[in-house]
Amino acid sequence: MRIFTIAAILFMAITGFAQNTTTTESNLTSFLTYEVPNQVSSTIGNGVIGVIVPQGTNLATLVPSFTLDAGATATINDIAQVSGTTVVDFSNGPVTYKVTAEDGVTTQDWVVTVSIESGIDADAQLQATIYPNPANEYVIVENAENATITIYNVLGTVVSQSISNQTNYQVSLSKLAKGTYLVNIQKGPQQITKKLSVVK
């Protein structure tokens, strides 16, 4: 009986140790850092990355360097992206990365916009705002007079573009499906990109 008891205790100890040392694969899908050569600045948050580069930069041949959550991987149109190696073309507007977590199941789209430095104080670029957000039938862009307003979906495709002749300009969203979009507001050399949620 004593031998059986000792054997049972040893078995429980071994299996318990094995259970305690089992690791759970991460479901985190964030960019921790993101930069391109000679960039002026960058911002990261809520699935959106904005990068400003000097005038004269070729947006078609940028090689971003980035770090992701542990074990996560990134693709663009199902093509694996390697930090400091893969060339990315930003000349046609925002580019969408899909980040897959270490668990191989959890994913998140990250939209990256690279803009040419305007030579104007960056604070001046932050005056344009959009509301309501989330929006349904329309969104209003403030400080939009003489601005080109372009809306991109998460794939980087232009789904709406218009030129405003009003300070507060209303953009119809009636033809857009529910989802996340980017609103790029460009006025002369200044531009800013805002994230917009459309609800139906």
Would you kindly provide a brief summary of this structure?
With 200 residues, the chain is mainly β. The protein is 10% helix and 42% strand.
Write the layout of secondary structure elements.
Blueprint lengths: L1 H19 L10 E5 L5 E5 L2 E6 L11 E4 L4 E4 L2 E2 L14 E6 L6 E10 L12 E3 L6 E5 L5 E5 L5 E6 L5 E4 L6 E9 L2 E9 L2
Parallel strand pairs: 3-8
Antiparallel strand pairs: 1-4, 2-3, 5-6, 5-7, 7-8, 9-10, 10-13, 11-12, 11-14, 14-15
Please tag this protein with its features:
200 residues; mainly beta; Immunoglobulin-like; 2 domains; 10% helix
Task: Give an account of the 3D structure.
The chain is mainly beta and 200 residues long. It has two domains: 86 residues, Immunoglobulin-like, CATH 2.60.40; 77 residues, Sandwich (Immunoglobulin-like), CATH 2.60.40.3080. The strands form four sheets. It has a six-stranded mixed sheet, with no helix packed on it. Strands 12-11-14-15 form a four-stranded antiparallel sheet, with no helix packed on it. A three-stranded antiparallel sheet has the order 9-10-13, with no helix packed on it. Strand 11 and strand 12 form a beta hairpin. The longest helix is centred in the N-terminal third of the chain and has 19 residues. The protein is globular. The protein starts with a helix and ends with a strand.
